[in-house]
Amino acid sequence: MKWLKKAVLTLVVIFVAFYLFSRPEDSADAVRNAFNAVGNGVGSLVTFFNSLSA
After folding, report:
1. pTM over 0.70
2. Taking the chain, what is the end-to-end CA distance rounded to the nearest angstrom?
3. Would you say which domain of life the source belongs to (predicted)?
4. What is the C-alpha to C-alpha distance for residues 29 and 17, in angstroms, rounded to an integer?
5. What is the pLDDT along the chain (54 residues), one digit of tens a residue?
6. What is the 3-class SS of the chain, one letter each residue?
7. For a tag site, which of 1, 20, 38, 45 has the least CB within 10 Å?
């Protein structure tokens, strides 16, 4: 089972590298969208905890 995790991780890394080099603009957009999603999630958590303390 350990070899399966390593094989899947290797395939994911190869795919990410291929995507990065073949479509750099799309890769940048994907990373930007991921950071925006994380930022929105953190903002929602802050709003939630602020509403609890009010």
Report:
1. no
2. 49
3. Bacteria
4. 15
5. 889 999 999 999 999 899 889 998 998 998 999 999 999 999 999 999 999 987
6. CHHHHHHHHHHHHHHHHHHHHHCHHHHHHHHHHHHHHHHHHHHHHHHHHHHHHC
7. 1
Apex 26 CA angle, 16 and 22, nearest 5:
55
What the block records as the tokens of 42 is 């953190």
The parent domain of residue 1 ranges over 1-53
Name the token pair of 43.
């903002």
Tokens encoding 2: 């350990």
Q: How far apart are the C-alpha atoms of 15 and 17, rounded to whole Å?
A: 5
